Amino acid sequence: MAEKDYAYAVGRIRILETKLLPASFFERLLKTASVQETLRLLAETEYPAEALAVDYEEAFEEELEKLYRFLRGLTNDAPELVVFLHRWDVHNLKLLVVAGGHGQPSRLGVIPFAELKRMVADGDYTGLPQELADALRQLPSSSPARAAALDRAYYRYGRRVLAKGPALLRDYWQARRDLLNLLLFLRLRKKGVSVQEFAGFMVEPGLIDHRQWLDYYTEDQPQVTKVLEFTPYRDLGLEEEELRTALPEVERAIDNLLLEMIATAKRIPLGIEPLIGFLLAKEREILNLRLVITGKLNKLPEETIRRRLRNVYF
């Protein structure tokens, strides 16, 4: 897009940012006594109260679909934006080639599910990013290895596209890769997966190369904080014991750190960054709303739900 076009697009985004739900609103939601009261409070916002009452998951998916359509139109399908949307195509491809077609497909991808299904059946991957097409042509036999191959291909594709773009998006994607490898390290080690299998699951490294992860993986009591010590990820704010044992806390800390990184887009006057920042902020908002509603449905204590919530884009 031309700079003048981004001026218009960013202007639209600045208006929408003012409508994002603040942390104080989530505190009000947490204080509600029932799901019905939660939904009544949401009726004060721009979310469709009636649709939420019928099927909140469907309503949230429609909100995301509307957002993606708006951003794609605003940017003429900017390559940087499309990287973030293709993750839903990866989800759908996993249903087709890993789960045997079982599971709920998403309609949020760039390519309709029916078209992806045809591609897989015909072996014709025209229209997919090259990295994903290559992975699909060389899929391993086991389901976990197939899922890992698609993840690695997706992150290679994102690196290729975002390496040509703004530094903020390049650094953000680099952090996504490193922090995914951190999660894989913690999850797979907890399950007793071999170091060879762990090596096959890792995505392309960012600041932390594979050798560091592999060396620490084989230690009896690996000091994960040492791996993170000289990187921006030391700001996760977790102690060694938490890193090794409290995976939900690690996931929450990672989500918060990534949002904090992309939130600097709010200070950028022209460019694609504010649009990507708003996309991720809105996805985070909907994740938090899902956590609240699900928690209320399951009658979880207020504090339990609060601990699961992620930071908001402010």
From TrEMBL:
It holds the Pfam family vATP-synt_AC39. Keywords: Ion transport, Transport. Belongs to the V-ATPase V0D/AC39 subunit family. This is V-type ATPase subunit. GO terms for molecular function: proton-transporting ATPase activity, rotational mechanism.
